[in-house]
Write a structure and sequence with these properties.
By secondary structure, the protein is α/β, with parallel strands linked by helices. The chain has nine helices and 18 strands. A six-stranded mixed β-sheet has the order 2-9-11-10-12-13, with helices on both faces.
């Protein structure tokens, strides 16, 4: 009896392990769901950054096989589960002279859609449209099918103007990350930290994301950078506590106190003078004065203060005429700060 019990236990563990390997975490989603149409270059970029994502190759011309699925199945599904889904048209896989481009192993058909699920930029699931399959016209069938392959996102994009106060009324506390993927600090954070942390979260612990490179934050109505709009936003949301709107910034809000605390990732200011092959960190969010008042660092056992820390010349680089601390080395400190912040507030 003991032998068979052990067999069942080992088998159960094996199946669980296989199940975990099969399920793919879609780290980042949207509070209200979102469908983003990609160009071929944008698809290449997502694969380059080794993203996990769900993609649909749409038909060359509109057909009911796609529009009916989009309206009756896919759109309500992504809204219910807070997903971001990507589409790309069949024609984008061809040059203007009709030469075929890399399909990333996707099955392409000009007359109907194909589903592709990518893990770290590599195709893991390829499902071509089949008019006989209920997958393409029944919501529950599609939902059950996808559920076998993905974990729902735990970091959700929001519209800060419309969603923050509603979330606070509903949840009473909310943690938010402001970012801009056109800036290298934010790109590094997403590629090397957030993907790992998102996998550890549950549906009850959600980090909300605010992309600042959008209209009414950094951009005007013509989607051109506008410094006046950006400065107004910085002031309204207290992003100017350290330097001037430096990103990425984590913030925690409560219904009672509104903005409670924040933390800045990377963006330490390096001195301009070199002494004995070292630069000094002249300014950082983590100063002696500030760390004493940060609640999320109350039980923090590692090095708290970065100001006056010495950094080897070889551990720095120049970007846009600004000397910066090598992100991989700086992250050894900043990842721990983010861990402390998110563990404390989520």
């Amino acid at each position: 009896l003991l032998f068979f019990s052990l067999i069942r236990l080992v088998t159960g563990l094996f199946l669980t392990s296989c199940d975990n390997q099969r399920h793919l975490p879609l780290h980042f989603g949207y509070l209200n769901g979102h469908i983003e149409n990609l160009t071929y270059e944008q698809l290449q970029e997502k694969n380059k950054h080794q993203d996990n994502f769900l993609l649909f190759v749409t038909p060359k011309s509109n057909c009911t096989c796609w529009t009916a699925f989009l309206n009756n199945v896919l759109t309500p599904y992504i809204k219910e589960h807070h997903l971001e889904v990507f589409t790309i048209n069949y024609t984008d896989f061809f040059t203007p002279s009709d030469e075929s481009l890399d399909t990333f192993s996707l099955t392409l058909n000009p007359g109907h859609q194909t589903l592709g699920l990518f893990k770290e930029g590599v195709l893991k699931l390829n499902r071509e449209y089949d008019s006989k399959s209920r997958l393409w016209y029944e919501y529950n069938t599609f939902s059950q099918y996808i559920f076998e392959y993905i974990y729902y996102p735990t970091m959700l994009q929001i519209n800060i103007f419309n969603d923050l106060d509603k979330l606070l009324l509903d949840k009473e506390k909310v943690s938010v990350l402001f970012y801009d993927l056109d800036e290298s600090e934010s790109r590094f954070l997403f590629d090397f930290y957030l993907k790992k942390y998102a996998y550890e979260l549950t549906k009850d612990k959600v980090l909300y994301l605010v992309n600042t490179r959008v209209k009414n934050i950094k951009l005007d109505d013509d989607l051109v950078e506008d410094e006046l709009i950006w400065q107004s936003f910085i002031n309204d949301y207290s992003l100017n506590t350290y330097l001037d709107g430096v990103l990425p910034i984590f913030q925690h809000y409560t219904l009672e106190d509104y903005l409670v605390e924040q933390s800045v990732y990377l963006n330490d200011v390096i001195s301009t003078s070199l002494v004995s092959e070292h630069y000094k960190i002249e300014n950082s969010y983590f100063t002696n004065e500030r760390v004493e008042n940060l609640d999320f660092l109350n039980n923090y056992k590692d090095e708290k203060v970065l100001v006056n820390k010495l950094v080897k010349e070889s551990d720095t680089f120049i970007e846009n005429n600004i000397r910066k601390w090598d992100f991989t080395l700086a992250a050894k400190y900043h990842d721990l700060y983010v861990n402390a912040f998110l563990d404390y507030y989520l």
